[in-house]
Amino acid sequence: MAGNLEAESKDPRQVVFNAADKDGHYRRKASQFRNVVSADPEAEFPAEKGRYVLYLNLGCPWAHRANLVHKLKGLQDVIQVVVMGYVRTPEGWVYDGSEGSVPCDPLYGFTKHSQLYHKADPNYQGRYTVPALWDRKRETIVNNESSEIIRMFYTAFDAFVDPSLRETYKPLLPSDKLKDIEAMNEWVYDTINNGVYKCGFASSQESYNTNVHALFASLDRLESHLAANQTPYLFGDHITEADIRLYPTMARFDAAYFTLFKCNLKMIRHDYPKLHQWLRKLYWDSSEETNGGVFGSTTHFVPIKEGYTYTLKQTVVPAGPVDAILPLG
Ligand SMILES: N[C@@H](CCC(=O)N[C@@H](CS)C(=O)NCC(=O)O)C(=O)O
């Protein structure tokens, strides 16, 4: 039987987050809008400047990866970004003007993210998730699956970006590393990106136990991978998709998942020197490699810590760890 989110109270900080299935395991549902923006002008959704809008919030790690690639590729003048609030309410994400967000949807004046989904499809029945890529022309959601949105951003809009940021010059998915990156994506998604949620949303001891050990086994595996390769990034001397997909989870790990999702067998800062170095290098970098520092500039610890706290129906935000991210040693 499918799990569901239950709203018990109208107070946004009192939402009961009941996401696990009856057996105590959390199972993420598949995204429903799966169209593709393409560089081909004849495509159903052709890349055009000013046509598409990326909806996100600053707490969500899946939205974070889309925001990262948007800024890494220098798409600020090509694709508008709309940031909504990071506190989940009984009605899903809303516009509340909280840190870094806008007071209402600038396109339609919507106050709730669900309204955008119903504008796209009045019969929509799924979750109202971020990120979502909106098409102003056809007035619909093109895609609400972050792993697909980021791949569109690698290439589809390259005609509109500086040549030095194009995939041909600076590949985020180099063809000679594609197989290795995809192999890593698979286990990193299952046991780390989604793995932290399987721990945090588990409603049985058995489910939590299984997933927390799988999570730390995979962090150990990443640590060994970095130690063996001796490269600054997961696949060499340049940032690739593998780094982009791992970063939002690692940036949230000590600050939120360790405490709030009970992912507390080890900490990145104390127990994983290579991963910790990798994380801090990305966060603090302001060179061309990160297009001037997009990892640091898109990481917002207040939305992250408060967002997870209230989602879990807790009212007190943990003070630590201090600092949320440590300086580069
Ligand atoms: N598979 C989706 C997952 C997106 C997702 O679950 N986003 C969460 C925020 S972290 C969300 O919007 N949840 C709202 C809800 O489930 O009601 C993706 O990667 O884009």
UniProtKB/TrEMBL annotation:
<dbReference type="InterPro" id="IPR036282">
    <property type="entry name" value="Glutathione-S-Trfase_C_sf"/>
</dbReference>
<dbReference type="Pfam" id="PF13409">
    <property type="entry name" value="GST_N_2"/>
</dbReference>
<dbReference type="Pfam" id="PF13410">
    <property type="entry name" value="GST_C_2"/>
</dbReference>
<feature type="site" description="Lowers pKa of active site Cys">
    <location>
        <position position="257"/>
    </location>
</feature>
<feature type="active site" description="Proton donor/acceptor">
    <location>
        <position position="197"/>
    </location>
</feature>
<feature type="binding site">
    <location>
        <begin position="145"/>
        <end position="146"/>
    </location>
    <ligand>
        <name>glutathione</name>
    </ligand>
</feature>
<dbReference type="InterPro" id="IPR040079">
    <property type="entry name" value="Glutathione_S-Trfase"/>
</dbReference>
<dbReference type="InterPro" id="IPR004045">
    <property type="entry name" value="Glutathione_S-Trfase_N"/>
</dbReference>
<feature type="binding site">
    <location>
        <position position="93"/>
    </location>
    <ligand>
        <name>glutathione</name>
    </ligand>
</feature>
<dbReference type="GO" id="GO:0005737">
    <property type="term" value="C:cytoplasm"/>
</dbReference>
<dbReference type="InterPro" id="IPR047047">
    <property type="entry name" value="GST_Omega-like_C"/>
</dbReference>
<dbReference type="InterPro" id="IPR010987">
    <property type="entry name" value="Glutathione-S-Trfase_C-like"/>
</dbReference>
<feature type="binding site">
    <location>
        <begin position="127"/>
        <end position="130"/>
    </location>
    <ligand>
        <name>glutathione</name>
    </ligand>
</feature>
<feature type="active site" description="Nucleophile">
    <location>
        <position position="60"/>
    </location>
</feature>
<dbReference type="InterPro" id="IPR036249">
    <property type="entry name" value="Thioredoxin-like_sf"/>
</dbReference>
<dbReference type="InterPro" id="IPR016639">
    <property type="entry name" value="GST_Omega/GSH"/>
</dbReference>
<feature type="domain" description="GST C-terminal">
    <location>
        <begin position="174"/>
        <end position="304"/>
    </location>
</feature>
<dbReference type="GO" id="GO:0004364">
    <property type="term" value="F:glutathione transferase activity"/>
</dbReference>
<protein>
    <recommendedName>
        <fullName>GST C-terminal domain-containing protein</fullName>
    </recommendedName>
</protein>
<feature type="site" description="Lowers pKa of active site Cys">
    <location>
        <position position="308"/>
    </location>
</feature>
